[in-house]
Amino acid sequence: MPPRSMWKGAISFGLVTIPVSVFPATEEKSLKFNQLHDEDMGRIRYKRVCSIDGEEVDYEHIVKGYETEKDRYVVITDEDLDAVPVESSRAIDITQFVELDEIDPILFKKSYYLVPEETGAKAYALLRKALSEENKVGIAKVSFRDKEHLAALRFKDDVFVLETMYWPDEIRAAEFDTLDAEEKVRANEVDMAKALIQNLTEPWKPDAYKDEYREALMDIVERKAAGQPIEAPAAAAPARVVDLMDALKASVEAAKKKTPSSSGGARRSSAKKSAAKKTTAAKKAQPARRKAAAG
Question: Going from the N-terminus, what domains does the chain have, and what CATH number goes with each?
Answer without folding.
Answer: 7-25+85-169 (2.40.290.10), 185-202+244-260 (no CATH)
